[in-house]
Every structure is written in structure tokens, then in C-alpha cells.
Amino acid sequence: MAEAEIGVIGGSGIYELLEKPHYVKVGTPYGHPSDLIALGEIAGRKVAFLPRHGRHHQYPPHRIPYRANLWALHKLGVKRIIAPCAVGSLQPHVRRGDIIICDQFVDRTKLRPSSFYNGSETIHVSMADPYCPELRSLAIKVCRELGLSFHERGTVVVVEGPRFSTRAESRWYKDFGWEAINMTIYPEVVLARELEICYVNLAMVTDYDVWAESPVSAEEVRQTLTTHAENFRKILERLIPIIPEERSCPCAQALKDARI
Questions:
Q1: What's the pTM?
Q2: Active site residue: 35, 98, 103, 209, which one?
Q3: Is 209 a catalytic residue?
Q4: Which helix (H) or strand (E) holds 186?
């Protein structure tokens, strides 16, 4: 029997939502996940929570064991993943504290293993619409009901990190019209698709990147996350109970036409 149906990959403040959590160590062919995985319930639903960077934030973005994280959740039976994260704004109308329900990403990373299929089987998984449409629709509904300042869609450019962008890079991304910048969404979303797991991203805007007048700082990101973390918890508390037990989205069939 599956130990969890819904996975949450995010920050440590989410631990408090789980009812009587217990912690498990899950081995994978790709090494150890970022940390122990907390198993518990939210509104009667079995949930697995994994801190993306580890409980002590010991993994920088470019060193997170993404494949191990996704494989471990898959091994526990997770079929849907909710992935809160921090992003920087690339547009004036995308303000600090806003939530973006991302619908597209642009990959600008260089060093990360981004597939479970390195031979002897070749898979070309479709990422035309990378985020689960069913989960996105529910997340939009919840944000609207909560009266949050949010954006129903947005393109996030994912950079390698751990450094922040130069002014030239930031202005370049801004001129493309992309809404946000981040260091962790890729390859999480792709690995989830390869495992036929539904994935939705809840991106919180913590800063204005460096196209604005003041350079972004790690302290600015931390302070904004601390101030607005309650919004993540409110969304999860309302979103998780309304996720249908049966999936009606295409995510569960992602590998059907991907094999060559």
C-alpha cells in the first residue's frame, strides 16, 4: 500500500501542517534525497513532505539531488506533487509577495542531470505544457477564494545558480517578457513528468531581481519568504483536500507515446 498520495517539495515551514508526522529514510538508485521524508496527513489525505534544500538548507540549487528526490517520492506512491518555491520578478506588474501559478519554464541550467533515461531505453517526454492542468486549475481556484494577489500563469526562467544574475542577464530575460526567475524548478518538473507524476508550481515573488535599481540579496529573499510564508500554508490547507483521488489529466499517460 502506498505510504503517500500527495507530495510537497518546499520549505521547512510546511512541516507544521502535517498531523503527527513520522520520518522515513528512502534509498534510491540516484543516492539519498535531500533529507528524511516526513509522512503524515492533511485533512485525511496521506502526504509526503520533502525539504528541497534539506532541513538545514545544506544543498545549494545546483547541488540538490533532484533525481533522488523525485524517485523517493515516486517510491512512496506519490502521484501528485505541489511545489512551492521562491522566484524573482522580471516584470513591474509582478510584485513582491505575489503568487504565480506557473504554466511555462525556460531552462538556462548547464550542469544538472535532468532525466532518468540515459540508456538503454530512449524517452522523449513531451513538455509542451509542463504543469498539470488539473492541479493548476485547482490552485487558481484556491488562490481566488483566498483573495490572494496572484497570477494565473507565468513563464519562469531557471538559471544554474547559486549566483544571482548580472544586470545584463536580468534585462535580457525581462525583455523576452518572461515573468519570473528561479534556480530550482528545473529539472524537478521534467523528472516528475518522466515518472508520470502530476506537478504544480506555486511560485512566491520575493524580489525584483537585478533589472530594478537595487541588486537582489539573499537576506531580501529570506525576509519576504518569512513574511508571506503563511500564504503557502493557507493554499496547501485548502488545496490538498479538494484534489480528486482519481486523475483526469494527461500526466498519468506521459510515457504512452514517448518511447522510441
A1: 0.94
A2: 209
A3: yes
A4: helix 185-194
